[in-house]
Amino acid sequence: MTEGRASTREAQAWATAKSQKRRRLSAAELREHLLATAVDMLTKSGGLTVSLAHLNMEELIRIADVPRSSVYREWDTKEAFYVDLMERMIEPAEAVGMAFDEETLKTAAAVVERHADRLVTSDGRRAVLKESVRLAVRRNFEAVSRSLSWNSSTALVATLSALDDSDRGRILAALTKAEVHFIDRMAEFYEAIMPVLGLRPKPPFTTRIFAATGSSVIEGLIGRSLTNPDIVNTTIMLPGIDDEPVEWSLAAVGFLAVLDAMIEADPNWG
Predict the structure, then answer these.
(1) What are the tens digits of pLDDT across the range 84-135?
(2) CA separation for the pair 248, 245 (Å, rounded)
(3) pLDDT tens per residue, range 179-221
(4) CA nearest 148: which of 233, 232, 54, 39?
(5) What are phi and psi of 55, to 5 degrees?
(6) Which residues pair with 236 in a beta bridge?
(7) What is the pTM for the complete model shown?
(8) Beta bridge mates, 243
(9) Confidence (pLDDT) at 154
(10) Is residue 191 a contact partner of residue 244, using CB atoms and an 8 Å limit?
(11) Where are the domains of the chain?
C-alpha cells in the first residue's frame, strides 16, 4: 500500500514538473527561448554553416520543449527563423567585434612589461616590438581559428547574396556594427601601446587603418589554412628578442610587414 502511494506521488510530481516545464510562453519568451536554444546547439556543433542545413528545426523544437504550433505562429517559415538566428549569433560580438580576443592584447602587453628595461634604446624597443608581435599574433591566430563568432561571421558573409534585400540589410548592418567595434577596440589598444614603444602611425595611415589591415592578414591566413595548411603553417626561423633564431608563424611575419609599412619610430619620443 505504501509503495502504491509512493508511486502515485511520483507520477503526480512528474506530471506537475512536466506541466510547469511546458507552461504557456509569451511570444517574447518563446522567441528568446528558441533563439537561445539554437545558439547553444550551434555553439556545441561548431557554429553556423553556409546553409544552416545542420540545424534541424524539429530537433530544435524538441530540445527547447515548446509547442511546434507556437513556433510556426511566431515564424512563418524556417527561413524567417534562420534570419533572426543569424542576427542573434552576431549580437554577443557586437561589443568587441568578431575577431577580438582579450588574451591577445594581454599577451602583447605582458611582453612589453616583461622587457621594460629594454625600452630605453631604439634597438631595445624594436626587439620588444618584434617579440610582442611574434607571440601575440600566434595567440590571436589560434584563438580566432577556434572562435565561434569569427567562424559564424565568415559563414554569414557567404550567405548574404542569397538573402532578400531587407534580410540582407539586417545581417549586413549587424556585421558592420561588430566590425566597427572591433576596429575601434584594436585602434584604442594600439594608441595606448605605441607611445610606450616609441611608435606612431606614418602619414597618411591611422591606427584604425592599421588595425583593419593587420587583422586582415591574420584572418586571411586563417581562411587559407583550410585549403593550404602546408604553406600557412610553415614555421619560419628568424631572430628573436635575444637575436637567437626562434619560431615565427607566417601570420606574425605578415603582420610585422604591415606594421613596418604603416607605423614608424616617433622622433619626439622620450
Answers:
(1) 888 887 775 555 455 678 899 999 999 999 999 999 999 999 999 999 999 9
(2) 9
(3) 898 999 999 999 999 999 999 999 999 999 999 999 999 999 9
(4) 39
(5) -95, 105
(6) 248
(7) 0.78
(8) none
(9) 82
(10) no
(11) 21-76, 102-265
Per-residue 3-state assignment (H helix, E strand, C coil) for the chain: CHHHHHHHHHHHHHHHHHHHHCCCCCHHHHHHHHHHHHHHHHHHHCCCCCCCCCCCHHHHHHHHCCCHHHHHHHCCCHHHHHHHHHHHHHHHHCCCCCCCCHHHHHHHHHHHHHCHHHHHCHHHHHHHHHHHHHHHHHHHHHHHHHCHHHHHHHHHHHHHHHCCHHHHHHHHHHHHHHHHHHHHHHHHHHHHHCHHHCEEECCCCCHHHHHHHHHHHHHHHHHHCCCCHHHHCCEEEEECCCCCEEEEEHHHHHHHHHHHHHEEECCCCC
Give 134-174 pLDDT, tens digit per residue. Answer: 999 999 999 998 887 787 778 788 888 888 898 899 889 98
Distance CA 103, CA 146 (A): 13
pLDDT digits (tens, 9 = 90+) for 12-25: 443 444 444 556 78
How is residue 213 written as a grid cell?
A: 589591415
**Is 102-265 in CATH node 2.30.30?**
no
- Tell which phi-psi region holds residue 197, choosing left (phi > 0), alpha (psi between -120 and 50) or beta: alpha
pLDDT in tens, 241-255: 999 999 999 999 999
Burial label for 74, CB within 10 Å (0-12, 13-18, 19+), is: middle
Other C-beta atoms within 10 Å of 132: how many? 21
